[in-house]
Amino acid sequence: MSTEESTSPTPTGTGPGTAGKTAIAVIATAALAGTAGFVVANSTADNDAETTTGGSGTTAGEAATTVTEAEIPGENRGFEDVHTDEPLATTEWLAERLDEGDLHEQDIVLLDVSENLPSSELTPYSEAHIPQAQYVEWSEEFTQPNTREFISADEFTELAQSLGINDDSTVVLYGDNNNWFAAYASWVFNLYGVEDVKLLDGGLHKWELYDERELVEDVPSVPEGNFEAETQNHDIRAFQPEVLEIAEENAASDGESTAGVNLVDIRSAEEHTGEIGVDPDIFQGEGAAIWGHIPGSVNVTWTQIVDEETGEFLPAEEIRAIYEDAGVDFNNPTIAYCRIGERASHTWYALSQILGEEVKVYDGSWSEWGNSVGVPVANTSGERAGLWGQSGD
């Protein structure tokens, strides 16, 4: 894969529909080359106190101080426009719509958001794709250059309109690798207020390999749409200050989840314990100085909730049981994280869209957390790990 703060966020508005800006305390750290330009360094706890994480007994030490603030425009709109009764489109449904003719005339916009790894057994968009699909390059079209922040609402409006998206469009997203970047796109589209967003269940794998359906080379031309983006919905996005406050409360309870929020780490079990990190030569820009997990988080690897043969999501009751068995209490809200946010978006889609729960994505994820100074990290591997985790022996 090329590319999978501290007071609490302080929105100007305080309720759904109230516009404002979230002030996020950050500190510039030039030494962390290849990571985000700003890294949260200070803690919500008293700066003179040490915080002990659960499991490994390592301490966060004295937290650094904030030197600047960054403002991310957004508002709290709640979940009413996010949750949908029909979050998944089947390949059979899409094939029927294609048989009926022009998708645009049916108010459907079909988008391919794939990673296109050389090792993929699926056909890249440039060679062939599902009929009438347009391609979106997530790493260039969703984010601002040289930052990890998303494009502005005006820029998202321009992107959406160029794809032919109208206010009443049904946007159907699909991709490779069990739809992980397609799910990321669905979260971004919801972030900016696109109301009718669906995933093609099973994605390109289901369409091309399992169903053996048609792929074409033709790239569609669509008329410009009229959709206008809203400012980001911060009710579905978590920033590091919010996660930090939760993590410190959990760390103070010896790593137990006591903050009334589920933290779900969807990385591999070995990444969660801190046994391994990532190969920076393969996952460029995603490496972390410290390995482990956020205190109080539970580990449910994202692939557990998809059918191995078809790539489709498991039935809703099975998904719910998997997370409840892992310790997720759905009476509480949930924050999901991974390494850069794309796999966490896949979990967000399952928990938020399929199960209808209140879920946020911490898109900073481990590439932000594991490179931050002064935040608590739990490592249950039995060894300190990562560049700054080594004992130095």
TrEMBL record:
Reactions the enzyme catalyzes: thiosulfate + hydrogen cyanide = thiocyanate + sulfite + 2 H(+)
Family matches, as CDD domains: TST_Repeat_1, TST_Repeat_2
Entry keyword Repeat: yes
Keywords from the named record: Repeat, Transferase
Keyword Ribonucleoprotein: no
Domain Rhodanese: 104-216, 257-378
Organism (species): Nesterenkonia salmonea
Single annotated GO MF: thiosulfate-cyanide sulfurtransferase activity
Gene3D superfamilies with a match to the protein in the record: Rhodanese-like domain
Database matches in InterPro entries: Rhodanese-like_dom, Rhodanese-like_dom_sf, Thiosulfate_sulfurtransferase, Thiosulphate_STrfase_CS
Tree of life domain: Bacteria
Protein name: Sulfurtransferase
